[in-house]
Structures are given as structure tokens and as C-alpha cells.
């Protein structure tokens, strides 16, 4: 407080001699004899008032000087005081001086003054004094007591020194300090000031707030470093302080709420003039979010790598959450869509495992908890405190008790196609809602989980599909191989092993396929493989040689594909076509042979599928029909070649094809050049895989044969006719001869008798004789007739077992060409179990022949309808077998019906009219019956029936022969 000093020379060396005088005196009186000191001062004062022009001296002092009584009244102010304040000595005296003191400062000044006076010791105070112009300036009021010789205080002397400049400097300094503090406190970082030995000397507001403790408590700052970081941090701080080099590190510090956060700590030394650190200031920037974000990013990267490697990732993902924020425990529940929806364990960090295990297998219902609700609503659920939340009391109360977990934040895991795959949850012991960072983290990790889950699903699907393809490839009889550009076999199926004679096909992998290719085909195969590996699909036939040295002819279809190393390789599917090749060569040969044979035989083959209107012809058929080779064959086209009169046969054939009947047709062609051809068609019906009728058949050009057959047939008919006429003639001649003789005798005797009786003298005797001869000849004639009848009835009929079906077949066969040439469709129908009859086979066949010839002749002129001949053999179940011959011929006139069986009745130009009468005789001689009936529409039916049992008139031999066969009822 004392600013004046005495120089060594003993003279005043400062602006305030009064102060020194008073202080000096005061000090001397205070230490040895205060009262005397006071009196000496008094005396000095008195001496002033006693005549020394002290006032002038005081006025000369450049400071403001005044004296006052102990009660505060001023009795003197110097000239400078008056000049400064603008008050006169008089105005200032007493308490007038107070008017010059700043009203704000006056109370404090008076208070200080009182306490100084009370203490009796020098003192000082600061206050603003008003200048004459009204401007206030700061002054230091220094006051000392004037003590008389008796040591009593007689007065107080004061001097006011102008401290305006200092005050201003102080104000500026204070403002700077204030600003500095504001800046430091306003820094977003924690700031610590430490001494060179690490002792904490100052911290900013942020530091106190973060730590939540007092400055004193904060002095043990090292205990608030995370235990894992503490040792290293202390060591590096110490090293920095020892070296004087700046400090830089990342450390976790304890926060008021008990959590640790990451800080970037930077320390800088403040050095003295000699370069020694005298102070260290540390800035700690909160990088916790950045650290978490970095950890999250690094974790995500790691997880993605794991996903890419196909490693299970869900547990690691949950553990990552705990590593980023050790207050957060994570769990993943997956949705099991098989059957009803259930939760399935996906993954968990160690602390959340209990929760996840508890929910594993739980059905997905809204009451289950936030996890289930997040899945159902497909939106995040952030529950501050599940234990106290009334929505999920049952499960969560228990879980919360067991795990102490309170907060539960759940986020649905959505697939790319917006399907819910599961739920990602974070559980925390402390109730609360997630920060923005935590929400973002959950979103990102849920997305990562979706990627991982979908990857697992697609891996599984891929594996299944691979297994499926493997099974297909293994099951196929085709040989499948993957060949590298250099011929190395990369993959093979077991069929290749079988083909090459290597039981373990996998042993072929790594071997060169070229080695198995026959040497003469190897170069072509190598070129083929190169082409495929350059991206072209291909097909090749080549031979391979198996390990046993056997040769097989192969065909391969190959396509380029990407190999496991990214290069193009050949995927080949090979087939052993040795047998097929042989067969096709065989086929070619036989096709050539057949074509030749068809050409030579005049027979062509066809395929016809009526449903598809598809007709395939052999070349020979084109030639037969005179149609350009290769022309598409249709029924309409065929119809243009069929003889107009036979078109109905074609129509009938098409009709019959609809029910799938086998076809056999004879018809004619009328070719464009007017030539007529006779064809015989036979078609075998079968059903294709769709059940449609298709025909495979042959058409033979039978023109030559038909013409010769017709000639032959005509000849045969004539012969039959002639034979019939001849046999009848011979019979007639023989009968005539036999009868003629007795008749001649009768006539001769009768005329002789007449002459004898007519003579003038009748010769009675002679006449009697001639009458007796006439009688004899008459008897002879009757005998001839009897003999003839006997001959006819006994000798012409033999007794034998006759199978009528067989007999009819034989006769029909005899007339086949006749029937065919007349374009008649003949059909034979017979009941089952037709019994054998007994009779004369030749005579019965003679009857059948007659009836068939008559039927053919009756249809010969028919052109407007089908010529159909039906022979039906029936058994009435008793003793009669009936044979009926129906035709669609001219029919019988009912008026003439009775005459038909009369001898010599004929409506034909060259008919003899004895056929039917002989037939009737034969049938009746068999004990049967022959009759005719007109058909309902066209033609007539001639029927006969014969008994099964032998007739008496056929003799006993018949009975023996009828028993030859068990078929006779
Ligand atoms: P011919 O055949 O020599 O005329 P037949 O005694 O065999 O002698 O026949 C007598 C007649 O009966 C024939 O001329 C014919 O008028 C008639 N006739 C025979 N069979 C048939 C038949 N199937 N359809 C129509 N008339 C027939």
C-alpha cells in the first residue's frame, strides 16, 4: 500500500513527502513511544500553523492534499484539490468535500474512513472524485494520523493520488480475464490447466459439469480415466511432461452419470524464458459419437466380410452393439414362417442371450413384447421401461427381474421385398429412449442383419438347387462334363465314369479329356473345345476310346460357361450314339431296300392319322398315284385320283377309320391320262399316345394281277358253268340211255301187240306176249328210276363231319378273286361254338358255291350302293345250324319267289335254272331246308339249315363220324 520510498541519500524521492513524513513518524511512535510521536507531529503541525508558509508548500505538491479532523470534517485542502474539484477551500471544508465524491462511492468511502479513524492507523480507500468539469476520476485516498508529542492524534492528513489510468488498466485486465473465463467456459471441450508436475490448477466449467464433481475432487483426475486406458494415459502424460513435447491421445473419461466417453486429449506446455514448461493446458474433445460411428463402420465392414464369406454373423452383430456401447445388449429373433409364425433364436450378445432364449419358439402375438409388436406393426418400438409398462406384464416382468434389463428398443428386420424376416432389439439396464446415434445404429444393423439372413436363405436355396441339379446330372444317362480350355476335366458325372470304364468318376477330375478322344478325331475335338471356350455353342460327333480300349461313337452338345476361376470353360453333354448310328445306318440300308422293293413290287406304304389330317407316303405311292414327289398328301388330293365309281369305297373307309377298324379295300384309280389302276389297300389301325387312331399300311398296285385274275376268274366261272352243264348233260344222257331202252322195248312191244291184235286174225297169244314184254320193260324203266334214286341218295351223299365255317371259308377263298374283281366287300360272321354237322362236304360246298355265285351275279349290275356280301353261320342252340348268304344285289321279285327253286327257272341270259333246285334237293337229302327271303332294303338272303345229328337215311356210318369231335352238342 505504501508506494513512497526514501532514497539512500535521505531526500524525498517521490511525489508524496507528506505520506512519508507521517508514516515515518507514525512508525516510530507506534514502535517506541506513540504518544510522544503524536505530540511531535502536533508540534510540527503547530509550527506550520505558526507561521511557516506551509500552505504554499503544500499547494506546490502536485497531488491533492487535505487535512481533516477525526470526526471527518476537513479543515484544509490544497490548491491542487481546489483546482481539480472546482470547489474552494471553504466549500470543501467541513463536510463540503463530500460533494466532490461520486455518490456511488461515498458510502463505502465514509465506511472506510470510519474504520481507519477507529483503527488510528494509516489507511486508504478508493473513490471517484468529480473534476471541476463534472468528470469523475478514480483517486486513491491515503490517510495518516498526525500525532502530537503526547502521542494523541490531532489530525488526519490525506493525499489523493490519481489512479484513473491504473483503474482503467485494471478494468481492462478484469474484462480480459472475464472474457478469457467466458471463452474457456464456453469452449465445447473440457479444459484443464496443470502445473509442471501434473497438479491440477484450473479447469473450465465444462470439465466440472462433465465430471459432476467439485474442483477439489477433480484434482484426483487420473482416477476418472477408464481402467483400461488409465495406465497408458498416465504414462504418456508423464512422458510428455518430462519431454516438454505436446501430448496427444484418445482416452475414456468417466461422466457424471457413471458412463465413460471417449475424448481426444491434447496437451500443450507454456514455457518460461528458459524454455521450461511452467504450465500445461489440456483440451479434451468429446469424440465418443465419432468413436462409436467408427466402431460401427468398422464393425459393419467386418460383418459384411463375414456375410460375404458365408460365415454366421448374427451373434457377432449383437456383440458388435455391446462393443460399441457397453450399456447396450442386443438380440435378434427370426421369424419362422413354416406353419404358424414363431420366433426363432437368431443371435444375441452374451447379456441378451437369456432374453432371446426365453423368446425362442414363442408364438408371435402382440402381447409377447415390443419385439413382437415391432414385427406385427412393421415399425420400430422404443420402450423406455418394459418392466413398468402395462402392455407386456407377464413375460417382461419375469425377464426384467431375471436380467435387470429395462429399456427395450426393437426394430423389424425387413427383406428387400419388404417381408419381415425378424426383429433386432437392444436391451439396456437403464430405462430410456435411444439417442439419434443409437437409432441410426439400429437401423443400419437391422439392415445388415437382413442382408445376412437373406444371404443365408439364398445360400440355402442355392445349395438345395445345386443338390437338385447334382441329382439330375447324376441321374441322367447322358454324360456331363466340364472341360477347361486345355482339356482338363473339371467336373464329371458318374455316367462318364461308366462310359470311359472308370468306376470312380471323380478320379477323372484333373485328367485330360483329349486323351480319351480317338486320335483321328482329337484335333477336331481340341478345336471344338477352343471354340466353345471362346463363347460359341457347338455340336460335334467324335469317337472315344475307353480305358479298356473300346471305341464308342459320341455326340456332344456343348455351351460355354464361367468356371470357378472366372475363365470360360466348356459344359458338354455327351451321348453314346454307337447303337443309334448303327441303327440309323441299318435304317438307311433297309429304307433303300424297301424303296427298291416297293418299286419292284409296286407296293407303297403309308402312315395316316385321321385326327391330324396327316398322311405320309412312301415314294412308291407317289408314283402309283402319279403325284409329284413331295406334294403334301390330303384326302382331297387322293380323291382326285380315285375312280369316280369307287369314291364311295373311300368314303366308307374314312367312316370306318373313325372307329379304328382295320382297313382292307380294293379300289380303282382313274389317272389323269385315263389309265385305270387296280389297288389293294390294307391298313392296320392302332392308337397313338393320345389315343388317336392312326394307320400304318400298304397299297399295292394289283392292276396286272387283277387283269390276269379277272381273265382266270372268267375262265373259272365258265369252267364251273361248263362242268355243271356237262355233268348235268352226262347225267341226263345216262338217264336217257337207261330209260330209253325199256321205253324202246315198250314202244316196240306195244306196236307189235297192236299189230298182232289189229291183224285180221289177231294173234292174242302174241299180243299177250308183247303186253307181258311191255310190262317187263315198264318195270325195267321203273327199276332204272329206283336205281337212280338209290344211286343219288346213297352213293352221292357221304357221311362225314363237316365244319361249316371251314367249308364256307374254302368256298369263299375259291371265289375271292371273283368277289374282289366285282368290288364286293365280303364278310363272314359265325356264332361261337358252331357245332360240327354230319353230311356230304362236297355237296354242301356245292350248295354254298351256288348261293355265293348267285349273290355275286345279283350284284354285278349294282353301281349305286356298296356291294356287300355277308355270310352268316348261326346255331340255334338245338339241332339246327343255319347258313345265310345275304347280298345287296337286285333282290327277288315276290311274285316269282315261288318259282326260284323250280328246275330250269332262270332270269339270266345264260342261266340254266337248275342250281337252286339241285341245292334244295341236296339240302333236303341232308334232312335240312333251303329258302329265300327278300332283304329289307336291297338284295336277298338265301338260307339253308341242316341238322346237327346224322339222319337215318344217311346210314349208320354217319353216327360214327359225328362223334369225332366234342363240338357236336
Ligand atoms: P340260274 O342261276 O342258272 O338262273 P338258279 O336255279 O341258280 O339258276 O337260279 C334261278 C333263278 O333264281 C335265277 O335265274 C334268279 O332269277 C333267281 N335267283 C337266284 N339267286 C338269286 C339271288 N341271289 N338274287 C336274286 N335272284 C336270284
Bound molecules: adenosine-5'-diphosphate
Number of strands: 32
Largest sheet: 5 strands, antiparallel
Shape: rod-shaped
Distance between the termini: 170 Å
Query: Nearest-angstrom radius of gyration?
Result: 74 Å
GO molecular function: phosphorelay sensor kinase activity
Catalytic activity: ATP + protein L-histidine = ADP + protein N-phospho-L-histidine
Organism: Dyella choica
Keywords: Kinase, Phosphoprotein, Transferase
Describe the structure.
The protein is of the alpha+beta class and 969 residues long. The chain has 6 domains: 31-163, 2-Layer Sandwich (Beta-Lactamase), CATH 3.30.450; 187-285, 2-Layer Sandwich (Beta-Lactamase), CATH 3.30.450.20; 291-463, Beta-Lactamase; 480-576, Beta-Lactamase (2-Layer Sandwich), CATH 3.30.450; 586-701, PAS domain (Beta-Lactamase), CATH 3.30.450.20; 718-947, 2-Layer Sandwich (Heat Shock Protein 90). The chain is 44% helix and 24% strand. It has 29 helices and 32 strands. A 5-stranded antiparallel beta sheet has the order 2-1-5-4-3, with helices on both faces. It has a 5-stranded antiparallel beta sheet with strand order 7-6-10-9-8, with helices on both faces. α11 (288-308) packs parallel to α16 (436-475). The longest helix has 56 residues, at 703-758. The structure holds adenosine-5'-diphosphate. Adenosine-5'-diphosphate (ADP) binds at residues 854-855, 858, 887, 889-890, 892, 900, 905-908, 911-916, 940, 942. This is histidine kinase. Residues 734-950 form the Histidine kinase domain.
Amino acid at each position: 500500500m505504501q508506494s513512497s520510498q526514501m532514497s539512500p541519500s535521505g531526500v524525498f524521492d517521490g511525489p508524496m513527502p507528506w505520506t512519508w513524513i507521517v508514516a515515518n513518524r507514525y512508525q516510530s511512535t507506534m514502535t517506541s513511544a506513540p504518544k510522544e510521536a503524536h505530540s511531535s507531529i502536533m508540534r510540527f503541525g503547530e509550527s506550520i500553523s505558526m507561521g511557516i508558509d506551509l500552505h504554499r508548500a503544500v499547494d506546490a505538491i502536485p497531488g491533492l492534499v487535505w487535512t481533516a479532523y477525526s470526526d471527518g470534517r476537513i479543515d484544509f485542502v490544497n490548491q491542487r484539490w481546489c483546482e481539480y474539484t472546482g470547489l474552494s477551500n471553504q466549500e470543501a471544508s467541513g463536510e463540503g468535500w463530500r460533494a466532490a465524491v461520486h455518490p456511488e462511492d461515498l458510502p463505502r468511502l465514509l465506511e472506510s474512513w470510519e474504520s481507519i479513524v477507529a483503527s488510528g492507523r494509516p489507511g486508504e480507500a478508493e473513490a471517484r472524485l468529480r473534476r471541476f468539469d463534472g468528470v469523475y476520476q478514480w483517486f486513491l485516498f491515503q490517510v495518516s494520523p498526525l500525532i502530537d508529542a503526547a502521542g494523541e492524534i490531532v489530525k488526519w492528513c490525506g493525499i489523493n493520488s490519481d489512479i484513473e489510468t491504473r483503474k482503467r488498466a485494471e478494468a481492462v485486465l478484469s474484462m480480459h480475464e472475464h472474457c478469457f473465463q467466458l471463452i474457456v467456459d464456453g469452449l465445447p471441450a473440457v479444459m484443464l490447466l496443470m502445473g509442471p508436475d501434473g497438479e491440477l490448477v484450473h479447469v473450465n466449467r465444462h470439465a466440472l459439469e462433465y465430471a459432476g464433481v467439485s474442483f477439489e475432487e477433480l484434482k484426483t483426475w487420473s482416477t476418472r480415466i477408464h481402467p483400461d486406458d488409465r495406465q497408458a494415459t498416465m504414462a504418456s502424460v508423464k512422458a510428455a511432461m518430462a519431454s516438454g513435447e505436446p501430448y496427444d491421445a484418445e482416452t475414456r473419461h468417466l461422466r457424471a452419470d457413471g458412463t465413460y466417453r471417449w475424448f481426444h486429449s491434447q496437451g500443450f506446455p507454456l514455457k518460461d524464458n528458459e524454455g521450461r514448461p511452467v504450465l500445461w493446458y489440456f483440451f479434451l474433445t468429446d469424440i465418443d459419437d465419432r468413436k462409436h460411428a467408427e466402431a460401427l463402420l468398422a464393425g459393419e465392414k467386418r460383418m459384411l466380410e463375414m456375410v460375404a464369406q458365408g460365415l454366421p454373423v448374427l451373434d457377432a452383430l449383437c456383440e458388435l452393439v455391446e462393443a460399441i456401447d457397453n450399456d447396450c445388449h442386443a438380440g435378434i429373433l427370426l421369424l419362422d414362417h413354416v406353419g404358424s409364425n414363431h420366433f426363432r433364436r437368431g443371435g444375441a450378445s452374451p447379456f441378451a442371450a437369456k432374453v432371446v432364449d426365453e423368446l425362442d419358439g414363442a408364438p408371435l402375438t402382440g402381447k409377447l413384447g415390443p419385439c413382437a409388436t415391432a414385427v406385427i406393426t412393421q415399425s420400430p418400438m422404443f420402450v423406455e421401461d418394459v418392466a413398468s409398462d402395462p402392455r407386456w406384464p407377464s413375460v417382461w416382468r419375469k425377464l426384467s427381474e431375471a436380467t435387470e434389463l429395462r429399456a427395450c428398443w426393437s426394430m423389424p428386420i425387413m427383406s428387400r421385398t419388404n417381408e419381415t424376416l425378424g426383429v433386432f432389439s437392444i436391451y439396456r439396464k437403464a430405462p430410456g429412449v435411444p439417442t439419434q446415434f443409437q437409432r441410426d445404429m439400429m437401423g443400419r444393423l437391422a439392415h445388415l442383419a437382413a442382408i445376412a439372413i437373406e444371404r443365408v436363405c439364398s445360400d440355402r436355396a442355392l445349395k438345395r438347387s445345386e443338390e437338385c441339379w447334382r441329382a439330375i446330372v447324376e441321374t441322367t444317362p447322358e454324360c456331363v462334363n466340364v472341360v477347361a480350355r486345355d482339356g482338363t476335366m473339371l467336373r464329371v458325372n458318374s455316367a462318364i465314369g461308366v462310359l470311359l470304364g472308370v468306376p470312380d468318376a471323380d478320379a477323372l477330375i484333373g485328367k485330360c479329356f483329349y486323351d480319351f478322344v480317338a486320335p483321328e478325331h482329337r484335333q477336331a475335338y481340341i478345336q471344338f473345345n477352343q471354340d466353345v471356350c471362346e463363347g460359341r455353342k457347338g455340336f460335334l460327333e467324335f469317337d472315344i476310346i475307353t480305358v479298356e480300349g473300346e471305341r464308342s461313337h459320341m455326340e456332344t452338345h456343348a455351351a460355354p460357361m464361367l468356371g470357378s476361376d472366372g475363365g470360360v470353360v466348356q459344359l458338354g453333354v455327351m451321348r453314346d450314339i454307337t447303337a443309334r448310328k448303327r441303327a440309323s445306318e441299318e435304317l438307311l440300308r433297309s429304307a433303300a431296300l424297301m424303296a427298291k422293293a416297293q418299286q419292284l413290287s409296286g407296293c407303297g406304304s403309308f402312315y395316316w392319322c385321321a385326327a391330324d389330317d396327316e398322311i405320309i407316303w412312301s415314294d412308291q405311292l407317289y408314283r402309283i398315284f402319279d403325284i409329284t414327289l413331295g406334294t403334301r398328301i390330303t384326302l382331297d388330293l387322293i380323291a382326285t385320283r380315285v375312280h369316280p365309281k369307287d369314291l364311295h369305297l373311300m368314303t366308307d373307309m374314312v367312316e370306318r377309320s373313325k372307329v379304328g377298324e382295320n382297313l382292307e379295300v380294293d379300289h380303282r384309280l382313274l389317272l389323269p391320262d385315263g389309265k385305270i389302276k387296280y389297288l389293294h389297300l390294307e391298313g392296320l389301325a392302332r392308337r397313338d399316345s393320345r389315343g388317336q387312331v392312326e394307320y400304318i399300311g400298304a397299297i399295292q398296285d394289283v392292276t396286272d394281277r387283277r387283269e390276269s385274275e379277272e381273265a382266270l376268274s372268267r375262265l373259272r366261272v365258265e369252267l364251273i358253268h361248263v362242268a355243271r352243264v356237262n355233268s348235268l348233260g352226262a347225267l341226263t344222257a345216262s338217264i336217257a340211255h337207261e330209260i330209253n331202252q325199256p321205253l324202246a322195248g315198250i314202244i316196240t312191244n306195244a306196236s307189235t301187240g297192236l299189230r298182232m291184235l289189229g291183224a285180221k286174225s289177231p294173234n292174242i297169244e302174241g299180243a299177250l306176249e308183247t303186253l307181258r314184254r311191255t310190262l317187263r320193260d315198264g318195270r325195267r324203266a321203273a327199276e332204272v328210276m329206283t336205281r337212280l334214286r338209290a344211286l343219288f341218295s346213297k352213293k352221292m351223299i357221304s357221311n362225314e363231319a363237316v365244319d361249316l365255317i371251314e367249308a364256307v371259308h374254302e368256298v369263299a377263298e375259291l371265289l375271292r378273286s371273283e368277289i374282289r374283281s366285282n368290288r364286293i366287300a365280303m364278310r363272314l360272321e359265325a356264332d361261337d361254338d358252331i357245332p360240327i354237322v354230319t353230311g356230304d362236304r362236297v355237296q354242301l360246298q356245292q350248295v354254298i358255291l351256288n348261293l355265293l355265285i348267285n349273290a355275286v351275279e345279283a350284284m354285278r349290275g349294282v353301281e349305286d350302293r356298296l356291294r356287300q356280301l355277308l355270310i352268316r353261320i348261326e346255331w340255334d342252340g338245338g339241332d339246327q345250324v343255319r347258313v345265310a348268304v345275304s347280298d345287296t344285289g337286285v333282290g327277288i321279285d315276290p311274285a316269282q319267289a315261288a318259282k326260284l327253286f323250280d328246275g330250269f327257272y332262270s332270269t339270266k341270259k345264260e342261266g340254266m335254272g337248275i342250281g337252286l333246285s339241285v341245292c334244295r334237293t341236296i339240302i333236303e337229302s341232308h334232312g335240312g331246308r333251303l329258302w329265300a327271303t327278300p332283304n329289307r332294303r336291297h338284295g336277298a338272303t338265301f338260307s339253308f339249315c341242316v341238322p346237327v345229328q346224322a339222319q337215318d337215311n344217311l346210314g349208320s356210318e354217319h353216327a360214327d363220324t359225328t362223334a369225332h369231335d366234342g363240338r357236336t352238342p
